[in-house]
Fold this protein.
Amino acid sequence: MKTLNTLSNYINGEWCISATTNYLEVKNPATVEVMAQVPLSTATEVNAAVQAAATAFITWRRTPATERVQYLFKLKNLLEENLEDLARTITQECGKTLAESKGEMQRAIENVEVACGIPIMMQGTNSEDIARGIDEMMIRQPLGVCAAICPFNFPGMIPFWFLPYALACGNTYIIKPSEKVPLTMQKIFQLLEKTGLPKGVVNLVNGAKETVDSILDNPQVRAISFVGSTPVAKYIYSRGAASGKRMQCQGGAKNPIIILPDADMEMTTRIAADSAFGCAGQRCLAASVAVTVGEAQNSFTEAIVETAKKRIVGNGLDENVEMGTVISAESQKRIEGLIQKGNEEGAKLLVDGRKPQISGYEKGYFIRPTILDNVNPGATIAKTEIFGPVLGLMHVNTIDEAIALVNSGQYGNMACLFTTSGAAARKFRYEAEAGNIGINIGVAAPMAFFPFSGWKESFFGDLHGQGNHAVEFFTQTKVVVERWRDDWARKF
Ligand code: NAD
C-alpha cells in the first residue's frame, strides 16, 4: 500500500508524483486532522494523461465488449471486498456517516453491474431491404478519450455514473476528483490497477480549476461529464462545447417537497428528515424546502421540529451517529450566514443548529439540523442552494399553489410529494418541473439502470449519467447503407 500523505496521479498505468509546487491540504472535517496533501496538477500532466488514454484507445476499442466487461466483473468483486475500507475513507474525508458511505459505494457498484450488460446495451439496429437489395444499419462506436470532473459530496459514487459505461463502450478515461475529497479515488484506482486493465485505459489526475481548464482545452478529449455547482456547470458546459466536445453537466439544486394533509405523517416526517438532514444536507437530492398544504401545516411542523432536535450529530465513524459534518470551515460559515439571513428576512428559527458543541470534536465542521418557518418565497434562503442541514417551511392552501411554488424555482433536480391520493400523485408527476420525482419518497435517486435526470438550472446537456443515457453519451452512432446485388452471389 502506498503512503497517502502526498497524493499521486495515475497516468499510463503508473503512480506519478506531480511536478506542481501547489498543494492543498485534505482535512478530516470531524477531527480537522490533515490527512494528506493533494497536488494541483499542471497542464503537462493533464496532457500526458490524455496522450496515454489516446494511445490506449487504439487497442481498447478493438477489444471485444465481452472481454472489456470482464475487467468490470473483477472491479465489482474488488469494490465489494473493499467496501468497508472505502466507506471509512469516504467518511473520513467527507464527513458523512459510515452507513451513508456504505450506501454510496453500493450505488457505485450497481453502476458497474449495469455496465456489465454492455454487449447487449450497445447493440445497434438494422433494417433489411430499405430498397431492393439495400440494407441499412446503425452501429455504435466509442468516442475516444473521455473525462469526468467530480464534486465533493459523493467521492465514491459519482465517478461511477460515468466510468463503467465509458470503459464498457470502448472509451478510455480520465477522472479529476474533487480536490476536497481525493483519497477515495486513490483507493479506487488501486483497485482498478488490480483488475489488470491495459495501461492508459484509466487515468487519475488530481487538481482544481487549472487542471480542469487543461482538460477542457485539450483537443483530444472528446466528451466530458461534470457534476458540481450550477455556476461551474455553466462555465464548463460552454467552454467544453465551444471546443466541440460532447458535454453533460449536472448542476446544483433547491429541492422542494410537498406534504398534503392526507399523507402518512409519521412516515413522511421520518423520510423528510432523512432527506433534509441525511449527509448533512449535502446531497444534490436533499429536501431543502417543505411546502405544506392546508391542515398538514400543524402536524408536519410539530413532528419535523421534534425529529430535527433528536437527530444524533457527531463523527460519522462513531456508532449511533445519524448525521456528520459539512465539508469545510468555509462551508460551515456560509451555511450559518444563510441561516442568519433567512431569519433577518422574516423566517422564524424553530430549530437553530448553529455552533453545536460536539464532545470530543470541538473543532469539527458541525451544524445541527435547522428549521426555518414561514420562509418567504422571495427570500434569499428560498432561492439559494444552502447545501447544509437546513429545511425551510412554507405553507399554502391548495396543491395548485404548491405546484406553482415548485415550478417557480430556477432549479429542477428533484421534487417530491407526500400523499395517499393517487390522483394527486398523478397530477404532481404530470405537472412538476423537475427531472427526478418522488412520490412518498424523499431522495428520488434513480437506480443505475435509469438516467439520473435533472432539469432547468440543474442540468446542461441532453444525455444524463447512468443506464442507457450513459451508453448513448459514450458512443457515436454510425449509419451504414449497403447495396449487395443478388447476381453478384451467383458466381458461387
Ligand atoms: P464545485 O462546482 O465547487 O466543484 C465541482 C468540481 O469542479 C470540482 O472537481 C472542482 O475542482 C471543479 N471546479 C470548481 N470550480 C471550478 C472552476 N471555476 N473552474 C473549473 N473547475 C472548477 O461543486 P462542489 O462544491 O464540489 O459540489 C457541490 C455541488 O455539486 C452542489 O451544488 C450540488 O448540488 C452539486 N451536485 C449536483 C449533483 C447532480 O446530480 N445534479 C450531484 C452531486 C452534487
